[in-house]
Automatic annotation (TrEMBL):
CDD domains: HTH_XRE. SMART domains: HTH_XRE. PROSITE patterns: HTH_CROC1 (PS50943). This is HTH cro/C1-type domain-containing protein. Residues 10-64 form the HTH cro/C1-type domain. Gene3D superfamilies: lambda repressor-like DNA-binding domains. InterPro entries: Cro/C1-type_HTH, Lambda_DNA-bd_dom_sf.
Length: 503
């Protein structure tokens, strides 16, 4: 039966508005007999009927959902009744009542497959919170069964968590937990899951683990190739989609898993400064991508898809840029301008990181970047935080969190991760040139990024440099420096306080 709380609310509304059942039925679009049976407790209120009644009463959507969920769990589970409520709750983002209903349903194990399929539907629609509730509860109900569905639930929960790139601690916990379920997935899902894990650890900068997963991915593909060749089948070339890792989105779905294993090791060795190893795997990337394109051309020849290999171009461009970058970072001066020309002729998010690499190489090997930095000035200006723009020089105009996109300061991941180090490298370059005003300005930018993103290692490095060259800072610079330190102090105090402190 419908919850008496909802019935009482409807009856109270009819009384205060002096409406008959027939009049309200007409207003809500319900049959008067149906409405009468609902109020008398002879008929269960459906979600659609409840939504129409809620609208007719002038109440917000989902107003009665909590009461409706309580009424549902007091009755026998019924998929035809519960499914519309779960779908509508997910649509409205009112997920509180979903948990109790899902748990009630899972008292009967036969509902597990249905709820899992519904969770997959929610995931495809981007309703991550609702999907997560279903996956979590299905996994909990099957934790002693060691089923593939349990492993898939854990995989999906990991994929959902990694959508929020800023929640690094939570992502690390989810990745570590999911690794325990990896081997329970089928072979095709295992390969994609390995790639998801590796790309996640790239984001977390766990280079040793990335290298291990890349090697495991290559071994798995080699073993699968032997098996599939024996069975006369074609090996799957790559995953259907990537979740949460935007930097590789341009080419990730187009690559074979083996090629991804090479790509991952290029990233690892470049970050470690092992440029010869990185160049070796870049050569494997080139050879494999050519072979892959040739195979695709043979498959597509004579069909409308003949031009398909051209879709490998984003990856081939990445390989070319990485090759130039590794040679430059290894000290090959002659490729510096070629790398700058290659990057500056492009319009993509990788330009910021390219400028950072060039400045870092210049500080290491003494390259003269003055002409290149003039060309890069619009890129540098685009990363600068708007500090010290007022004549009084006592205000930092801090960017606010964009709740719609869930990003802070900038949608560009490189900016969030490396803004503080980007400007420190620029400051060091100018210090070597004894251009102290520019160096101090870049140190203040670096400190602003460090405070804004909570990058404590970057803050310490920046403050140490500023104090070392304080004599070259003007009064305005020192005022800004103090303001930034004060903001850092307030942030630290706010984190330290607890409710017990009276905060």
């Amino acid at each position: 039966m419908a919850d008496r709380t909802i019935q009482a609310a409807i009856e109270h509304y009819l009384k205060t508005q002096q409406l008959s059942i027939t009049q309200f039925a007409e207003r809500s679009g319900l049959n008067s007999g149906t409405l009468s049976n609902i109020l008398n407790g002879h008929r269960f209120l459906s979600v659609g009927q409840m939504d129409r009644i809620t609208e007719a009463m002038g109440l917000p959507e989902g107003y009665f959902y909590d009461q409706y969920a309580k009424a549902c769990i007091e009755s026998a589970p019924n998929w035809r009744r519960y499914s519309p409520f779960l779908r509508r709750s997910a649509e409205l983002g009112k997920t509180e009542g979903m948990v109790s209903i899902v748990r009630r349903m899972l008292e009967n194990p036969s509902y597990g497959p249905l709820l899992f399929e519904l969770a997959e539907h929610f995931l495809d629609e981007g309703k991550l919170e609702a999907a997560g509730i279903l996956y979590q509860n299905v996994a909990e109900s099957e934790k002693y069964q060691h089923s593939e569905r349990l492993a898939l639930c854990e995989y999906r929960l990991f994929q959902i968590v990694r959508q929020d790139l800023e929640a690094k601690d939570e992502i690390l916990r989810a990745a570590t937990r999911f690794e325990g379920y990896l081997e329970r997935l089928d072979e095709a899902d295992q390969a994609e899951a390995l790639l998801d894990l590796a790309d996640t650890y790239v984001h977390l900068r766990k280079w040793e683990r990335v290298e291990q997963l890349a090697e495991e991915l290559e071994r798995k593909m080699q073993a699968e190739q032997v098996l599939w060749n024996k069975e006369g089948k074609a090996l799957p070339q790559g995953p259907a989609k990537s979740m949460g890792q935007e930097d590789e989105a341009a080419f990730r779905p187009l690559l074979s898993f083996t090629l991804h294993s090479y790509r991952l090791r290029v990233v690892v060795y470049e970050r470690r400064g092992e440029y010869e190893k990185a160049l070796y795997y870049l050569s494997l990337c080139t050879d494999s991508s050519r072979r892959y394109a040739a195979e695709e051309s043979m498959v597509d020849e004579g069909s409308a898809a003949v031009g398909k290999p051209a879709s490998m171009k984003p990856f081939e461009d990445w390989v070319q840029a990485e090759r130039l970058a590794c040679r430059m970072l290894a000290g090959e001066t002659e490729v510096l301008h070629a790398y700058a020309d290659w990057i500056l002729d492009r319009e993509d998010a990788g330009r910021l990181e390219a400028v950072f690499r060039m400045v870092k190489a210049a500080n290491t090997y003494g390259y003269d970047l003055d002409d290149i930095l003039k060309r890069c000035q619009p890129i540098i200006n685009g990363l600068a935080l708007p500090i010290g723009q007022e004549p009084s020089c006592s205000k930092v105009d801090w960017p606010q969190k964009d709740s719609a996109k869930g990003s802070v300061l900038s949608a560009n991941r490189f900016a969030q991760e490396w803004g503080v180090h980007f400007f420190i490298e620029l400051a060091m370059y100018n210090l070597k040139k004894q251009r102290f005003p520019s160096a101090v300005a870049h140190l203040l930018q670096s400190l602003a990024w460090g405070v804004a993103t909570g990058n404590h290692a970057g803050i310490i490095r920046c403050v140490a440099l500023f104090e070392k060259y304080r004599e070259h800072a003007g009064a305005e610079d020192i005022t800004l420096f103090r303001e930034l330190i004060e903001r850092l102090y307030q942030q630290t105090e706010n984190k330290r306080r607890t409710p017990a402190d009276g905060a």
